Each structure stands twice: as C-alpha cells, then as structure tokens.
Amino acid sequence: RSGIGRYTRALTEQLLRLAPEEQWILYVDRTPGPVLPGAEVRCLPWPQRLLWSLWYAPRDLRRRPVDAFHGATGFELPGRGPWTLVTTVHDLVLFRLPALVPARHRWAVRCLLGGALRRAQRVIAVSETPRGEVLTRYRLPPDRVVVVPEAAAPHFRPPAPSTLAATGARYGLTRPYVLFVGFLEPKKNLGVLLEAVAALRRTGVWGDTELIVVGAPGWGPDPAQRAQTLGLDGAVRFLGAVADAELPALYGGARAFAFPSRWEGFGLPALEAMAAGAPVVASDRGALPEVTGGAALLVDPSPQPLAEALGRLLEDSALRERLR
After folding, report:
1. What is d(CA 70, CA 81) in angstroms, rounded to the nearest whole number?
2. Per-residue pLDDT for the chain (324 aa), expressed as one digit of tens each?
3. What SS3 state is found at 48?
4. What span, in angstroms and rounded, lies between the C-alpha atoms of 51 and 48?
5. Under a CB-based contact definition with an 8 Å cutoff, are residues 201 and 272 in contact?
6. How far is CA 103 from CA 94, 109, 188, 323, in A?
7. What values do phi and psi take at 131, rounded to 5?
8. Strands 256-259 and 280-283
9. What angle do CA 75, 217, 264 make, to 5 degrees?
10. CA-to-CA distance for 263 and 209, rounded, in angstroms?
11. CA–CA separation, 222 vs 191, rounded Å?
12. What gap in Å lies between CA 70 and CA 301, rounded to an integer?
C-alpha cells in the first residue's frame, strides 16, 4: 500500500477498536478483499473524481445519511449537506513540484482540493509542513486546520535476532545491505539513490553491500532499467511489495535506510525505519526534518551528498549504533 493507503487502513482499524459503539461506514470504489469486522462497506464506484465528490457521494448520503464524513485521502469530499465534513491533507507537492505528480492526479487535485478544504469544518494536516502550505495557499482560519501526526504501527520495533535471521534467510540477505522502502514513483527519487550507489562502488566504499529496494511499481521511469544503465547488476535487488509483517526485520537488519524523497508531507517509511532501529539517511526537504526529529542524517537529495552520508554510515559502526 502507499503511505495514504497505510494511513487510511490503520486509522480505520483504530477507530473501530476505540469506538465500537458507533456505526462505521467505509466507502470503497470496488469490493474489497477481507472486510474489517464492525464496518459497513458501501461500494460506490469512482467513475470520475469530480462526479463522485459532487454528485454520486452526496446522492448516496442523502438516501443513507451519516453524521460525519471523513475524506482520508485529502480531496474526495462530498458536497455540503446535513453532515459534518472532515478531510486529511497529506501534502501539496502538486503546487511545488508538479512534474512529480501524474497528470490525471494534478487535474483532480486542482479541481477538487480548494472546494473540499473550504467545505470541511476541520482539516487535518499530517505535519506542520502541509498545514503551513494549506494556510498560505487557501487562507483558511488557522483554528480549522489541526496537525494530527502519523505514527508507525505498533509492530514496528527492533526485531529479535531470531526474526532477523529468519527474514534474512527468506530473502537471501547474506550480505550487508542498504534498504529503500517506498512506492516506486519519481517523488521518491530512487534514481538519485542508484547514482549514489554507483559513485560509492567507484570509490570502493560500497564493497559487497547490496541495495535492497522494497515497493510496488508506481509510475514514471523504470528504476530497474536505470540500475542496469548504471552498471549496478549484482549490487541492487528489487523485491517488489512485501508483506507488512516482514518490514520491521528488513528495516532492523539494514546497515542504513535511505529515503532521499524530493518532498514529503510526512514520510512514514522514515519513521517506521527509526521505530525498527534502522540508521536513517533522509532528504532535508518537506516534513522529513520534522518527522525524524534530529535522529537521522539529513542531506540534500542529490547524488553526492547522499553518497557521502551513506559512505559515513557504511564505514562508521559507532555512528550506525548511535543512530539506531
């Protein structure tokens, strides 16, 4: 799942646990697999986001009213009605770096986000970074925009040695490795990480280290082709999406976790890595300085600074342990 998908799932699970006496309804655009116990599921296909927000959803809600509607993904919020509206804003990267967002998504956000924010009685920002951007761009009353940070799920904690060994055997992790976790899209800046690895190999600092890439394919250039162009055969492995339960051990066994994203409204993988005990090298952009709170190496997300920071971690075991 993407970061927003993880947020939505975890939030729903906790709401169901904390307030089972309430009636919880999930709007989905296709029939899901395992349905969360205690929730009513309403399948309302998204024929097109504008139509869904302004026509399909309000029409369904008038037939089957609710007291409050939360748009967990940011801008798919129904029109006004006899219900309270709350929405969560994850980032406004579209306006800062539009090339990092698919064209169809740019169009949807430009059409829907401003109206959704103005209709909402409360706007949740996942960090101070998107809150500041919302207040500046849309001039909402400050008391309507509140920060509710994301969190790593409870199973993200330093793994036991036996768990590390079992996960290492399952994925064939016989060499030291640097880990990347994230949706494979241009915003995550994986190409720059590959260039940093190539630079470290030329200097000999990389040695027999592997770069392990975890994440579902997104959009944009294929990073595997970029790795091949850079001559990184044998130095990079793409695992694809892995089971959520496997991630803490993958984080915890890494020499370093690298997250050179060009912009994040939060940056949940960096927090998950820290919770699992991984030394983190992250971009100094967006919310990542706020989220990592002084416990990561922050660098400009370009090849040379990233290579220098990773080189320090690979060569300095005391630094790795301090960051863990």
Report:
1. 13
2. 678 888 888 898 899 999 999 999 998 887 666 667 888 988 888 777 778 888 889 999 999 999 999 999 878 899 888 999 999 999 999 999 988 888 877 887 888 899 999 999 999 999 999 999 999 999 999 999 999 999 999 999 999 999 999 999 999 999 999 999 999 999 999 999 999 999 999 999 999 999 999 999 988 999 999 999 999 999 999 999 999 999 999 999 999 999 999 999 999 999 999 999 999 999 999 999 999 999 999 999 999 999 999 999 999 999 999 999
3. coil
4. 5
5. no
6. 10, 10, 17, 39
7. -60, -45
8. parallel
9. 45
10. 27
11. 9
12. 34
19 Cβ contact list (under 8 Å, min separation 6): none
Two tokens, residue 97: 């770096």
Contacts with 274 (C-beta within 8 Å, 6 or more apart), sequence order: 152, 280, 292, 295, 296
The token pair that represents 176 in the structure block: 């030291």
Residue 235: closest CA among 186, 190, 194: 194
Q: The tokens of 250 are what?
A: 């993958």
Residue 130: other Cβ atoms inside 10 A: 26
